[in-house]
Specification:
Rossmann fold; mainly alpha; binds tryptophan; 2 domains; binds adenosine-5'-diphosphate; Tyrosyl-Transfer RNA Synthetase; three-stranded parallel sheet
């Protein structure tokens, strides 16, 4: 959805923004620029619910200690990025049982064929052939449940999640059609220029938490030197022209650096090209690295302060779970009733 429609959206009654992030690793620059920055902006204007999607992350094998640690870390990072836990509902997915309960109901309103067409399922089952579990297959149904439970209007995500939001809409329409209006149809919310931040080592692939190559991904808690080093090593091409060529696959590396530069400086592509005309890739890479390091510094400092106060974080998690559960439970009850499940 284009930025200009934000004002029009505000004029309507208060809408609801909802999204989630998996605690499979520390969030990275793609998560931040592609999704989480929008979470903060939308939370200032709308009712917002954001959660750590720990149930989704167990579709891949995770060390229990790492899952616990990364759930805590991702939760604290949300607050450090500027989500106010008093204003918005921030919670851990598994602490609200309605997600799993609605997921079972909606599994029965989702077709095998439509789940087989999901690109993320195809990618992940190819990548992890030893563990193609049923959860990986029905992952989009859990995601649909996450969204539909809260009657969300907007779902701020990166471009890779678009197909999952479409299937959530399809499931909602099918259910509403079979009974009567039960679930609101959600809309994805993207910022086009940052919807897909690419890997720094293989710029035709998206930046991802699970990349084995440590230079490919900039994590939001990386220190300044590491961030600059990763950008210095970013793969570009053999020319030396700092200009954006959307359709040219050979230019994916420099295109990506320009997108990050524009996101950090709020400059347009044309302004950036003009500013860097005649200059080399080497200086540009350092400049992008420094901007990212400076931009993340405040978040890192707040993260250090907040993560030291375990009691405060734990009270935020509890409050968030209670507030989320009370909304979610209402929708779950409504769906159970419509289906005809006996109300005891
Ligand atoms: P990952 O795919 O790296 O494991 P998640 O699946 O937890 O990350 O994604 C959290 C949010 O970040 C989602 O909205 C997703 O669309 C977005 N996202 C993930 N990778 C990128 C990227 N490289 N560029 C832009 N947004 C991204
Ligand atoms: N599937 C999302 C991802 O991998 C995470 C997620 C789970 C999510 N449930 C959600 C995002 C609901 C938005 C809304 O990035």
């Amino acid at each position: 959805m284009p930025e200009q429609t934000l004002q029009a959206m505000q004029k309507e009654q208060k809408k609801r923004s909802l999204s989630g992030i998996q605690p499979t690793n520390t969030p990275h620059l793609g998560n931040y620029l592609g999704a989480m920055k929008n979470w903060v902006t939308l939370a200032e204007k709308f009712d917002a619910l954001y959660f750590i999607a720990d149930l989704h992350s167990i579709t891949l094998r995770m060390e229990p200690a790492a899952l616990r640690k990364q759930t805590f870390e991702s939760f604290v990072l949300l607050l450090a990025m500027g989500i106010d836990p008093e204003k918005s509902v921030v919670f851990v997915q598994s602490s609200v049982s309605a997600h799993s309960e609605l997921c079972w109901l909606l599994n029965c309103y989702t077709q095998y064929g439509e789940l087989s067409r999901m690109t993320q399922f195809k990618d992940k089952s190819q990548k992890y052939p030893e563990n193609i579990n049923a959860g990986l297959f029905t992952y989009p149904v859990l995601m649909a449940s996450d969204i539909l439970l809260y009657q969300a209007d907007f779902v701020p995500v990166g471009a890779d999640q678009k197909q999952h939001i479409e299937i959530a809409r399809d499931i909602a329409m099918r259910f509403n059609g079979a009974y009567s209006e039960t679930f609101k149809l959600p809309e994805p919310y993207f910022t086009k220029s940052t919807a897909k931040i690419m890997s720094l080592s293989e710029p035709l692939k998206k930046m991802s938490k699970s990349d084995q190559n440590l230079n490919a991904t900039v994590f939001v808690l990386d220190d300044r030197d590491t961030i600059i080093k990763k950008f210095k090593r970013a793969v570009t091409d053999s020319e030396a022209d700092i200009s954006y060529h959307e359709e040219d696959k050979g230019k994916a590396g420099i295109n990506n650096l320009i997108s990050v530069y524009c996101a950090m400086t709020k400059k347009t592509v044309a302004e950036t090209e003009h500013e860097w005309q005649g200059k080399g890739y080497g200086d540009f890479k350092i400049a992008v690295g420094e901007l990212v390091a400076d931009g993340l510094k405040g978040i890192q400092q707040r993260y250090q302060e907040l993560s030291a106060d375990k009691e405060y974080i734990s009270s935020c998690m509890k409050k968030g779970a209670e507030r989320a559960a009370s909304i979610a439970h209402r929708t779950l009850k409504k769906a159970q009733k419509k289906i005809g499940l006996f109300q005891v």
